[in-house]
């Protein structure tokens, strides 16, 4: 009596399935979803709770199709016709790492002392920071976070000085210049646990909302009284995005 040959899966296929199963298990555990919830729905639900990049979502959909082809597709000689190549296996293993242990923005970006000014500092100090280091945004702190002094606000202040024909008052306090900030020229305080995907999501959503000078200030717990650890600005988006690249 004829018997079908035993089903075997290649090492590459086994690695792919292991990575995919780990991702699915992580999704179900996080969402407390039972087996009746399909993988496409898991992606949508998980993305509402924890941001996933567009690239990650597309990859997950593609990997789900390959998983189905390996597990449920046509077999020939006991082996699935669909079999992932090494680069695909490496990509899903990297994606598994990104999702289960997402990289932190503070780890990806170079750390350094945050240059800040006090509300009572003369504007000349802020101008020197802009001249020497090319900063376009300076956080303002007294005992706690006050705001962000942008070069746009400085430009509006300078224009006001010229209109008044009073000369450039270099001893004018930072707090006075800060009053020339427009809505949207502010920062969001975020904890040091913010991930790369979350940072990209926060910056991107703010830019779409018209807040062109949006800054994230990473602190220990995202509190106004915390010491600033790192500024994250739209200029950092390419570096953050590169950290999510599969290759």
Automatic annotation (TrEMBL):
Alphabetical keyword list = CBS domain
Lipid biosynthesis as UniProt keyword: no
Lineage top rank: taxon: Bacteria
**Cited PROSITE patterns:** CBS (PS51371)
Query: So where does this one cross the membrane?
Result: none
Q: Tell me one Pfam family matched here.
A: CBS
Q: Where is the CBS domain positioned along the sequence?
A: 109-165
> Matching InterPro entries, A to Z?
CBS_dom, CBS_dom_sf
Q: What's the protein here called? A: CBS domain-containing protein
């Amino acid at each position: 009596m004829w018997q079908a040959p035993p089903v075997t899966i290649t090492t590459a296929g086994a690695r792919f399935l292991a990575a995919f199963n780990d991702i699915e298990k992580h999704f179900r555990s996080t969402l407390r979803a039972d087996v009746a919830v399909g993988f496409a729905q898991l992606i949508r639900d998980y993305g509402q709770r924890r941001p996933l990049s567009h690239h990650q979502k597309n990859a997950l959909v593609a990997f789900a199709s390959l998983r189905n082809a390996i597990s449920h597709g046509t077999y020939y000689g006991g082996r699935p016709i669909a079999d992932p190549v090494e680069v695909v296996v490496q990509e899903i293993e990297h994606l598994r790492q990104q999702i289960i242990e997402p990289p932190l923005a503070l780890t990806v970006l170079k750390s350094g002392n945050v240059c800040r000014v006090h509300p009572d500092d003369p504007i000349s100090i802020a101008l020197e920071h802009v001249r020497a280091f090319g900063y376009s945004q300076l956080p303002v702190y007294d005992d706690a976070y006050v705001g962000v002094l942008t070069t746009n606000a400085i430009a509006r202040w300078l224009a006001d000085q010229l209109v008044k024909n009073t000369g450039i008052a270099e001893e004018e306090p930072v707090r006075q210049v800060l009053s020339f900030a427009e809505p949207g020229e502010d920062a969001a305080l975020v904890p040091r646990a913010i991930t790369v995907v979350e940072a990209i999501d926060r910056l991107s959503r703010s830019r779409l909302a018209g807040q062109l000078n949006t800054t994230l200030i990473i602190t220990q717990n995202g509190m106004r009284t915390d010491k600033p650890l790192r500024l994250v600005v739209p200029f950092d988006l390419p570096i953050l995005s590169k950290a999510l690249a599969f290759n």
